[in-house]
Amino acid sequence: MGLELKDRAASYLGPILFVVHGFYDWLFVLGSIAVTMNFDALSNVSIVKDRAFAKFWLAWGPGFTANENESAVPDLVASAYGVVVELGPGSGNQLPRMDASKIEKVYGVEPVTSLHAALRLSIKENKMDDIYHVVPGSIEDESALEKFGITPGTVDTIISIQVLCSVPHPQETLRRLYQLLKPGGQIIVYEHIQNMDMVSRQMQRKLLYLLVKPAISAGL
Fold first, then answer.
1. Pseudo-torsion of CA 28, 31, 37, 42, nearest 10°?
2. Are 111 and 220 in contact (CB under 8 A)?
3. What is the pLDDT of residues 124-157, one digit of tens each?
4. 182-194 burial string, b = 16+ CB within 10 Å, else e?
5. How far apart are CA 197 and CA 182, in angstroms?
6. Statement: residue 56 has pLDDT above 70
7. What are φ and ψ of residue 103, in 5° steps?
8. pTM, whole model, 2 decimals?
C-alpha cells in the first residue's frame, strides 16, 4: 500500500530540512572563519567540513538519539561486551546505553575532530573515563587504529549505529571490520534502509541522497 499524501510529504520534508540546515552550517562556519581572517583555514575544505558537520550534529544528534528509544538500538548497544570499537560516536549519544559492567575498553573512532570536546564531556558525564578512549581518524585509517592496539583479532564488539551510510565503500569496510573481531565476536549494526514505497525510494536514490549527503557530510 502506498503512503498517504501527508505521510509522503512528511517523509520528504525531513531530509529537505537537513539540506537547508546543512548548507546553513557551511555558510555559518565559512563566515566565522572569515571574521578571524584565517585564510589558511578558509581555503581548507577538510576544516570547513569538519566544523560544519560538528555544528549540524550537535543540533540534530540528540533528536536522532531520542527517536532511537523506540527502536532496537538501546538493547543492541547494551549488549556490547569486552573490547569494544564504536564507529562514529559523534558527541557520545550512545554512551548512556552501554553497560559498563560488561565492557573492558571502548575505542570511539571519530574522524570529526570538532566533536571530540563534546565526546570527552559525555565520557566524563557517564563516568567512563577509565575505559573509553577517543581515536582520532576513520575506520579506514589502519595506522590510527594500530596506535591504540586495534589490530585483527583483538575486538569483541563493534558498534555501528547509522554510520555505514556515510562510508564510501560499506562492503569493503565491513570485511575489514570482521577481520578485527576475535573468534565469536559481534558486529552490532543499525542502519538506514530503502523506503518500501516505490516513489519515495526513487526520491531517496535520485534526489534526496544527492542533496543530503553533500550538505551534511564530513567526509566520513
1. 70
2. yes
3. 999 999 999 999 998 888 899 999 999 999 999 9
4. eeebbbbbbeeee
5. 39
6. yes
7. -115, 135
8. 0.81
